[in-house]
């Protein structure tokens, strides 16, 4: 049924809705729900090897890649072990939707230029406080991601008899997400 009073969105907004919906955190949200985030999307530009955040930093923003690539890595003693490379539409720093969290990995620009939407955590928390249904849908998206991650962690552990490549776990989880889309 046609609703004469329904909010009308511009073509630019509709394109942004489709872009965000490619991500598992936003894929179950309606246009009106995604629209709550639009005022808080801050486009940031990073250059090759520029650090976006380090492991153990406070989780102050959720990031969604618009263009370019971001390398996710762990620091082991003085070395960095690459886990995976993310591209357009993928998010990182997802734990920013949970209060009082810290980063569990490093995020570094892996292309000549990378454009990333950042949504500050305090804005996410404010939206969650006013829209419980948005919070529920996004936390479910995060839970689906972590569930796939744990399944892949167990598979990797079993397949390598206790000695496994952590990068393989992250890569498998990302491949699972991409297959669902």
Tell me, what is the CATH class? Mainly Beta
CATH fold field value: Jelly Rolls
**What is the approximate shape?**
globular
Strand content: 15-25%
- The secondary-structure class comes to alpha+beta
Secondary-structure element pattern, one letter each: HHEEEEEEEEHHH
- How much is the average pLDDT? 88
Span between N and C termini?
28 Å
Q: Counting H and I runs of at least 4 residues, what is the number of helices?
A: 5
Instruction: Describe the strand arrangement of the main beta sheet, using strand numbers.
Output: 1-8-3-6
CATH architecture: Sandwich
Gyration radius (Cα, Å) is 17 Å
How would you explain this protein's 3D organization?
The chain contains five helices and eight strands. With 181 residues, it is of the alpha+beta class. It has a single domain, classed as Jelly Rolls. α4 packs across α5. The protein starts with 10 loop residues before the first helix and ends with a helix.
What would the keywords be for this entry?
alpha+beta, Jelly Rolls, 4-stranded antiparallel β-sheet
Summarize the structure.
With 181 residues, the chain is an alpha+beta fold. The protein has helices spanning 11-21, 31-35, 121-130, 132-159, 166-180; strands at residues 42-47, 51-53, 61-67, 70-76, 79-86, 91-92, 106-109, 113-120.
